[in-house]
Task: structure prediction
Amino acid sequence: MHWLSDMVDSTSTLHALLQGMRLVSRRTGEYVGPCPACKAGSDRFHVWTQPDGKRPAGRYWCRTCGTHGILAAQPDQKWQSHPQVETIIPTVHAQTAHIPQYRQLYELVMLWAQRWLFEPANPTPLAYVRTRGLTEADARAFLLGYGLADPQALTGFLREHAPELLPYAQEAGVLTIDRAGMLRTHWNLCGTLIFPTIANGVIVDLRTRRIGPGERGRSLVGKPIDRGAVFPMGWDALGDTDTVILTESGEFKTLVPLAAYCQGLLDVPTIGFPGINGFQASIAADLRARGVLRVLIAYDTQPRPVVNGVLTLAPEERWTLMYGAQLSDAGLEVQVMRLPLASGETKTDLDSFLLTYGAARLQR
Result:
């Protein structure tokens, strides 16, 4: 059964699909909302209700699971599924009672993936990691890995080494069901770098990123809190510090300055939550419990936009104020690190600033 069949049939209109979605562009009629297929995010699923050049109206795409297609308008303006649209099986939701099994799966995934990152016959992934500012030693220390593009490679590994965990693999966001009803590796883990989040010696979450310019990090499907993914990347590298840098992860935004800290080039370690809105409120109490007194918030720096002739705060500044207030209310000292923009720059962040100007300037 097509995953849109419950929303778009012979008697429904496009309006049914857009319920709960948010209009972001009147020119293209673009709406965003949570994906009906993988349930990811609040703005990962896009629908365009107006044609754009050679592209027709009614097209849709999920930035997380990749499902895409076209809803074809009929003469009576009813909408139905385009025959070329992929069939996607709905995601199985995570359950907090199964968090221990999810973490076992994440450990096995990283044991499998790290081998392939350092495979001499496939040098491209490690070479890309080096271009982003991490050495091979850094990649080993942070347990980075690479997921093969073959959708059955990880599935076969898990079936061989931990068949008892397969019933939990879909909930964990590791495996999924393909159009033929076969169990396979989730799209987000195929042909991607894989970054573990390690907390208290346990892998609690995974992030992925495809190789190449313009690619963005992706989270596993489902709500992080249901999978027990409430810790930031870099948590176990904090040591006994009383000060941390908080950024958005942007995996390299966290790990590149964190590697410099581990090498003694920076005095303060870095932690990062996935995305600007991935902040977990529980982090304040967790930081205080391990002796942290001060948090430096270092989100991306971008020019402030002008709205109706009025200079306004950039989105990162608004999030900084909101999260800073939460951390301050919990008793932490909060400071803001706003990296300077060079002439002509439209954005800068921790890793690019460090790679451009060096650790000594970032330290200052």
Remarks:
- The longest helix spans residues 99-117.
- Residues 249 and 272 are 5 Å apart (CA to CA).
- The chain has a mean pLDDT of 85.
- The first strand starts at residue 22 and ends at 25.
